């Protein structure tokens, strides 16, 4: 069995805590590796190495830092298949989906090549008599990121690429469920020319997280995961004087108006609801058709599409729509919530509880589920399921439909499908949710815009990637400058005035 390592000071370093986490192959249920779980002292050592390395990296000009990002992009493209294969093996997502994971991270790295422009300050000539004023963006020092299992390539790159491009060192604490790709990314960054110690990967659990939250040299923390943990990290990190951004859970609604193209809406729901086995914070988990006639037409379109979904291991290639969920515990949690929906009176139109795949009986596969006539008081509506389960909540009117999304505690993403421009415009303006799709089911912004939710889906003032990332990973210093004049009337220079 493979024993994974940390990556500290440019080298693979064995864990010394004596504690390990099992890393499974979700398709077979077998333990394929063990990841070390760092102690507080191991984390402190990584931070010390990063802090020493950052002193010189922060002085490197932005153009040279951008060149490292350029080379890193080349290496990501070169190793795309190798990264995707390792990702699929530990996470379980299909190979095309794994490549998409890497690609969306790569796009943020491409954006960071613009660091010289993005880090430019502002200048005011003659703000007063003989006075100039200008601002500078300077790195924070050592930054840290705590990333989830569901995007083990994309989200780490969303964090460490802009942080490093800004001149910081970065401590990455990836999910212990699928840590191999983050370790590979660190090696590729150094191959791209990044000095040793600037990007450290330290595997761990709550012990490592608390060490990050409490270490005085760590200036900022990024987190993506569940809302309860986001609240914990945000509260403890802020109380320790750190800059913190945390992104939590989601319950994304898609409203289907009576005038919508129902085939388009059904296709969008199947892809957004069941892709990646529903293990996406931007997955659509609630369909809200307006009117019973719309709901009946939608269900009629959905059922045959969902029944045709192919579930299997990533090794089956393009013949699979989605793979297993990440762990046995995740599978049991999903099935428990499905049972709660049945017990609380929802109509289970498609029941995937008995799904089994020949030859992979011990894998963590969950069949697709479709609920109809779900109500807001049910657990399957209130809680984030993070699995291949789509709930249909019938709304009597547009106002009732939009009210469901507005009133829900989560506010990550939402969408509306309609041909009515006025309805779409009203929806986009009134909805209290961070990312909005109009006839787009998963409205994840591209790298040059920012990603972030509202309400209990996000904690902190700034979003991920885009311009907000360069604001988050720098401090602004403003300089007011006045020089005594040595010029006499008539243009003669007075040297004594400069003494």
Terminal Cα span:
74 Å
CATH superfamily of the largest domain: Aldehyde Dehydrogenase, Chain A, domain 1
- Helical fraction: 25-40%
Counting structural domains, the number is: 2
Shape: globular
The count of strands amounts to 23
Question: Which regions have little confidence, pLDDT < 50, spanning 5+ residues?
Answer: none
> Tally the helices: what do you get?
16
Strand content range: 15-25%
Radius of gyration: 25 Å
Mind telling me the CATH class of the largest domain? Answer: Alpha Beta
Which CATH architecture of the largest domain is right?
3-Layer(aba) Sandwich
> How do the strands line up in the largest sheet?
15-16-17-14-13-19-20
Secondary-structure-based class equals alpha/beta
CATH fold-type name of the largest domain = Aldehyde Dehydrogenase, Chain A, domain 1
Task: Give an overview of the whole structure.
The protein is globular. The protein folds into two domains: 2-248 and 457-480, Aldehyde Dehydrogenase, Chain A, domain 1 (3-Layer(aba) Sandwich), CATH 3.40.605; 252-438, 3-Layer(aba) Sandwich (Aldehyde Dehydrogenase, Chain A, domain 2), CATH 3.40.309.10. The mean pLDDT is 96. It has a seven-stranded mixed β-sheet with strand order 15-16-17-14-13-19-20, with helices on both faces. The chain has a six-stranded mixed β-sheet with strand order 10-9-8-11-12-22, with helices on both faces. Strands 1-5-4 form a three-stranded mixed β-sheet, with helices on one face. It is α/β, with parallel strands linked by helices and 499 residues long. It has helices at 40-57, 62-78, 80-91, 95-112, 115-118, 154-165, 180-191, 206-214, 227-239, 262-274, 292-307, 328-343, 379-382, 398-407, 421-430, 467-472, and strands at residues 2-3, 6-8, 11-13, 20-25, 30-36, 123-128, 131-139, 142-146, 169-173, 199-201, 218-224, 243-247, 252-256, 284-289, 347-350, 369-372, 389-392, 410-411, 413-417, 435-438, 454-455, 458-459, 474-482. The protein is built from 16 helices and 23 strands. Helix 13 (379-382) links the parallel strand 16 and strand 17.
């Amino acid at each position: 069995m493979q024993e994974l390592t940390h990556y500290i000071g440019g080298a693979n370093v064995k864990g010394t805590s004596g504690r390990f986490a099992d890393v499974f192959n979700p398709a077979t249920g077998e333990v394929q590796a063990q990841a070390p779980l760092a102690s507080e002292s191991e984390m402190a050592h990584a931070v010390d190495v990063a802090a020493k390395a950052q002193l010189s990296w922060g002085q490197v000009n932005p153009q040279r830092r951008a060149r490292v990002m350029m080379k890193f992009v080349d290496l990501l493209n070169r190793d795309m298949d190798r990264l995707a294969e390792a990702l699929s093996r530990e996470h379980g997502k299909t190979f095309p989906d794994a490549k998409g994971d890497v690609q969306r991270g790569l796009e943020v790295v491409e954006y960071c090549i613009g660091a010289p422009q993005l880090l430019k300050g502002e200048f005011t000539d003659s703000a007063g008599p003989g006075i100039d004023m200008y601002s500078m963006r300077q790195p924070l020092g050592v930054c840290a990121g705590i990333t989830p299992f569901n995007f083990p390539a994309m989200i780490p790159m969303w964090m460490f690429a802009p942080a490093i491009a800004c001149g910081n060192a970065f401590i990455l604490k990836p999910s212990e469920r699928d840590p191999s790709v983050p370790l590979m990314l660190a090696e590729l960054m150094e191959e791209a020319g990044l000095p040793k110690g600037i990007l450290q990967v330290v595997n761990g659990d709550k012990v490592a997280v608390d060490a990050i939250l409490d270490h005085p040299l760590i200036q900022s923390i990024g987190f993506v995961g569940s809302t309860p943990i986001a609240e914990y990290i945000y509260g403890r990190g802020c109380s320790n004087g750190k800059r913190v951004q945390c992104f939590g859970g989601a319950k994304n609604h898609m409203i289907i108006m009576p005038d919508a193209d129902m085939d388009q809406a059904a296709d969008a729901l199947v892809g957004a609801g069941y892709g990646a086995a529903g293990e996406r914070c931007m997955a659509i988990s609630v369909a809200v058709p307006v009117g019973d006639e719309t709901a009946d037409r939608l269900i009629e379109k959905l059922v045959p599409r969902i029944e045709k979904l192919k579930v299997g291991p990533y090794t089956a290639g393009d013949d699979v729509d989605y793979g297993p969920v990440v762990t046995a515990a995740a599978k049991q949690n999903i099935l428990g919530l499905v049972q709660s929906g049945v017990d609380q009176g929802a109509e289970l139109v498609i029941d995937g509880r008995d799904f089994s795949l020949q030859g992979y009986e011990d894998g963590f596969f969950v069949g697709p589920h479709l609920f109809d006539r779900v109500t807001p008081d049910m657990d399957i509506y209130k809680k984030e399921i993070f699995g291949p389960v789509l709930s249909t909540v019938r709304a009597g009117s547009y106002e009732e439909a939009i009210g469901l999304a507005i009133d829900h505690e989560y506010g990550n993403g939402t969408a509306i499908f309609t041909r009515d421009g006025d309805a779409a415009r009203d929806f986009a303006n009134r909805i209290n949710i961070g990312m909005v799709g109009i006839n787009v089911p998963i409205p994840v912004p591209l790298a040059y815009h920012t990603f972030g939710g509202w309400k209990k889906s996000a904690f902190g003032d700034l979003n991920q990637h885009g311009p907000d990332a360069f604001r988050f990973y720098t401090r602004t210093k403003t300089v007011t400058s006045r020089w005594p004049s040595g010029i006499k009337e008539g243009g003669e220079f007075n040297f004594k005035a400069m003494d």
